[in-house]
Amino acid sequence: MLKKDYANVPIINSVDDVVKRLLSLEMASQKEKVKIKTQQLVEKVRRSPDDNGSFEVQVAMLTAKIRTYEEHLQRHPKDKNNRRRMLMDMDRRKKLLAYLRRVRYDTFENTCKQLNIQYSLPPPYTRRITKRWVVKKAFCVKVFQEARKLKAPERLKQRREWQARARAAKEKQAQCEGTPV
Asked: Which of 62, 144, 169, 174 could be joined to 181 by an S-S link, Cβ 3.0–4.6 Å?
């Protein structure tokens, strides 16, 4: 595959193989390769030829960046700076996708399908469980249970009073109507 600038030149078919190879993508710089990948992904989701800033296009651009970072990190696993940049871009893309999902679900589905993105819902709430938190929670549960045990006779007494009042009110209503209960 030739670089974009040289693909439509009519003389290119009659040129030597060495020149074709120099003008091909395998000899292109990383920057040019990323640019072409980005253009290909953007073309899949673009609404119109002038669309450069819609959420779908932004997601496509971030996806191209993320995939480039992933390729780079396969070769250089200790590169912490690019890993951080990739994670930041992933978070930005996740925010954009969450917005798209909330506002225009059909566009969200189409974008995910076109870009081959697996979107998973975030958990509703997560809490980091520490040993201290577990001990504190167990202690609170134990205190709550002990308090319930202490209040149990009082609650039983209240329940019996309420039931007696309800029975008395029912009997009174029955007497007023003249029918026995």
From this structure: 174
